[in-house]
């Protein structure tokens, strides 16, 4: 089912003529449908296509005529963890030597799914079927290819076959043992220390051979599985309520923050920062509703009208939402879209008539990242940023890699915000399906953040050299873990802030492990090295377990992050309750709620 909000054709924003054509690596029959921009096989289609792709458990590198497999080792430093690529096995064929002139000089992706990709090597008449999490690397050899070879950067110390010539055991001098299976008999041609060639031995009734290589003797797996994901609560307001004795202080801050809203004073045309200004104002409306200070809501509603509508109407000067038909995408990054969706959800809640008028445009913006439809009629790729194997999103895609050519994710909290905001939009429109999917994806993002980015004492996920100096992973990529953040922020307060912002009701579930929060705040230096904007997020975390001390620190702040306010920080502090009395909700990885769990079904195609 497509998350478009309408049964007929979804709304499309004005078209843009994007100068970058889809890469030559996609087969022509794939170009008629939206293409993935944050796929796990991104390195196969970016630049010259020969950077390794991590298809768990292997790093796989393609060249014009061969494919290399690596079972990677890890290089660990205090600030980084890298996977090291070495071509343990390289598979090629004899076709490249005799027919090179009539074939393409690069690989071609002929099909893909959330968990697999099919890689054709036209110059060698080889086709590789690569599946994430599978111990087997499968490839087929066409009838026109009489020979194929396997080479290594190491040395073959031993190899043997069964009597039917359909199973071979290969052992390398680095200790690796590989098993090779063939659907039809194959025989060894030449063998050397670093190369073994095979020839096919079959009758005219056979139509090729399929080989499977695996690095460990693992049981055969099934072709589908179910994942049951318990939701975290998606609510407009705080889950525990704001302490009534704090209402006057919050109202005073709200009066000042709302009075400072002026759309004409926003000078940026950046979708990211403009979106933060929108979401910041939307937070004020919800805080006011929660404490019954409704007289300021009309001013917030006016501001949201003035700031959101020009983007949706296409009248904003200097930027806008444009549809790129070549790729099937809207010209906005996921982080930025999350802030806009939050503002749209709140405005649709407090002004239902406006919400219905702009619903098609709101759903189109949402579907750019949360489309579930497939097929030629879909205008957007499926779940653009969310990785259904890793179960978290990737921020960087084909055009905005900051450090190296592969997908990365740094701000886990902004990833949560994308799907949390979409779920709120579902609540505003009475769309239970959207609310459920958004809630499920947000809960998976939270679980992934706690696992991969939160470095907790005693969990032994990362090597000691890295873990002892890092409480947060700066950014996670497919192959690497680094302590640094976007824009090369190095201060720990900035790292903390980028994993907290924006401060929302769902933030408490992202940081429900109080022991970890204590360690994280202690990790932040006591010396004041960054601006008030960053320190506000550190104090917010401190408020989880040391409420009164954090409150005094927040009251002393003079400036706030572009998406934050004093009102929001006071709301947060005054809605924190004694964590020692909160029960399992603050002791477990997940905070379960009364919502019905969502069931995700995966199938390997």
Automatic annotation (TrEMBL):
Keyword rRNA-binding listed: no
Organism encoding this protein: Arachis hypogaea (Peanut)
Protein name per its UniProtKB record: glucan endo-1,3-beta-D-glucosidase
EC number, as in UniProt: 3.2.1.39
Single Gene Ontology BP annotation: polysaccharide catabolic process
Domain named Glycosyl hydrolase family 81 N-terminal: residues: 32-222
Homology family: Belongs to the glycosyl hydrolase 81 family.
Domain Glycosyl hydrolase family 81 C-terminal: 242-572
Coiled-coil annotated residue ranges, if any: none
GO MF term (any one): glucan endo-1,3-beta-D-glucosidase activity
Catalysed reactions, semicolon-separated: Hydrolysis of (1->3)-beta-D-glucosidic linkages in (1->3)-beta-D-glucans
Assigned keywords, A-Z: Carbohydrate metabolism, Cell wall biogenesis/degradation, Glycosidase, Hydrolase, Polysaccharide degradation
Entries under Pfam families matching the protein: Glyco_hydro81C (PF17652), Glyco_hydro_81 (PF03639)
């Amino acid at each position: 089912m497509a998350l478009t909000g309408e049964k007929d054709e979804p709304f499309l924003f004005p078209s843009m003529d994007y100068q970058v054509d889809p890469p030559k690596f996609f087969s022509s029959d794939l170009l008629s449908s939206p293409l993935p921009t944050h796929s796990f096989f991104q390195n196969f289609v970016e630049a010259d296509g020969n950077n390794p792709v991590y298809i768990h458990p292997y790093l796989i590198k393609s060249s014009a005529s061969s494919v290399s497999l690596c079972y990677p080792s890890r290089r660990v430093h205090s600030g980084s963890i890298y996977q090291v690529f070495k071509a343990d096995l390289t598979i090629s064929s004899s076709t490249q030597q005799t027919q090179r002139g009539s074939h393409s000089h690069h690989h071609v992706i002929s099909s893909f799914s959330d968990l697999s990709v099919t890689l054709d090597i036209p110059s060698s008449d080889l086709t590789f079927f690569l599946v994430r999490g599978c111990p087997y690397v499968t490839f087929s050899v066409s009838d026109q290819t009489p020979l194929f070879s396997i080479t290594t950067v190491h040395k073959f110390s031993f190899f043997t076959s069964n009597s039917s010539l359909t199973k071979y055991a290969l052992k390398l001098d680095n200790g690796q043992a590989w098993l090779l299976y063939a659907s039809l008999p194959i025989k060894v041609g030449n063998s050397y220390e670093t190369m073994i060639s095979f020839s096919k031995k079959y009758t005219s009734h056979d139509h090729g051979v399929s080989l499977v290589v695996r690095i460990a003797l693992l049981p055969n797996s099934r072709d589908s599985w179910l994942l049951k994901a318990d939701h975290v609560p998606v609510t407009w307001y705080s889950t525990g309520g704001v302490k009534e004795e704090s209402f006057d202080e919050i109202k005073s801050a709200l009066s000042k923050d709302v009075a400072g809203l002026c759309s004409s004073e926003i000078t940026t045309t950046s979708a990211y920062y403009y979106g933060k200004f929108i979401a910041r104002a939307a937070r004020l409306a919800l805080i006011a509703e929660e404490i019954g200070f409704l007289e300021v809501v009309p001013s917030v509603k006016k501001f949201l009208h003035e700031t959101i509508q020009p983007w949706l109407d296409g009248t904003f000067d200097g930027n806008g939402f444009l549809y790129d038909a070549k790729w099937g995408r809207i010209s906005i990054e996921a982080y930025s879209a999350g802030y806009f969706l939050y503002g749209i959800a709140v405005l649709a809640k407090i002004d239902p008539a406006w919400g219905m008028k702009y619903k098609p445009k709101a759903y189109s913006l949402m579907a750019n990242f949360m489309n579930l439809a497939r097929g030629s009629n879909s205008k957007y790729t499926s779940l653009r940023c969310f990785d259904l194997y890793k179960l978290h999103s990737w921020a960087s895609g084909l055009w905005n890699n900051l450090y190296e050519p592969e997908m990365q994710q740094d701000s886990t909290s902004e990833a949560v915000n994308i799907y949390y905001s979409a779920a709120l939009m579902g609540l505003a429109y009475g769309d239970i399906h959207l609310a459920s999917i958004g809630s499920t994806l947000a809960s998976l993002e939270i679980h992934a953040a706690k696992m991969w980015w939160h470095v907790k004492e005693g969990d032994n996920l990362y090597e000691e050299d890295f873990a002892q100096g890092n409480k947060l992973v700066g950014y996670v990529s497919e192959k690497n873990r680094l302590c640094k953040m976007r824009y090369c922020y190095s201060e720990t307060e900035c790292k903390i802030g980028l994993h907290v912002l924006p401060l929302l009701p769902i933030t408490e579930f992202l940081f429900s492990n109080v022991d970890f929060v204590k360690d994280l705040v202690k990790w932040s230096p006591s010396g004041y090295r960054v601006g008030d904007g960053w320190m506000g997020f550190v104090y917010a975390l401190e408020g989880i377990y040391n409420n009164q001390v954090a409150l005094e620190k927040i009251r002393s702040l003079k400036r706030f992050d572009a998406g934050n306010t004093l009102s929001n920080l006071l709301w947060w502090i005054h809605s924190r309750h004694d964590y020692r009395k909160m029960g399992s909700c603050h002791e477990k990885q997940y905070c379960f709620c009364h919502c019905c769990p969502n069931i995700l079904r995966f199938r390997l195609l």
